[in-house]
Automatic annotation (TrEMBL):
This is NadR/Ttd14 AAA domain-containing protein. Residues 2-157 form the NadR/Ttd14 AAA domain. Pfam families: AAA_28. It comes from the Bacteria. It comes from Thermaurantimonas aggregans. Coiled coil: none annotated.
Amino acid sequence: MKIAVVGPESTGKSVLCKKLALYYNGLWVPEFARYFLLTQSNSYTYADLEKIAVGQLFWERLYESCNKNTWLFYDTTLLTIKIWSEWKYGKTAKLIENNYCSPKYDLILLSDIDLPWTYDPQRENPHDRKELFDFHIETLKNCNYSFEIVSGFGQERLVNALKILENLKSPNIY
């Protein structure tokens, strides 16, 4: 199973992916942008978003090719990079535009904004979370992705995600 976890910054995506991978004895595909930004003193340009996309695609394909019969949990996808590019720069590179809607995930979990925003040197938008959340919903709908919103604080968020995944055979389509 291929499960992507997307959403605005500081919504618990990485923590949730790691916990789900542990629960299902699967793998967590990390967010490439975090590692890339560490090499750039946490700053980036529009052109860097395409480099981040290439890195994310490489990591996704690497994990997929080595682990065909396991659960994979993707900590963000090109969809998030597309949204960020549009939000910050008002445009998207062709590589991202041509690949962000690829239907390769069995389900996408959209991480709700019910968690408090927590400072991190790589985070930028503590005040735009609702708008970015709505932008995620709009973009997911435009891609015709099956997705579920996962909410809850702490362990409750994991339990809610597990309930959603138990019903994977008939997910709600927003």
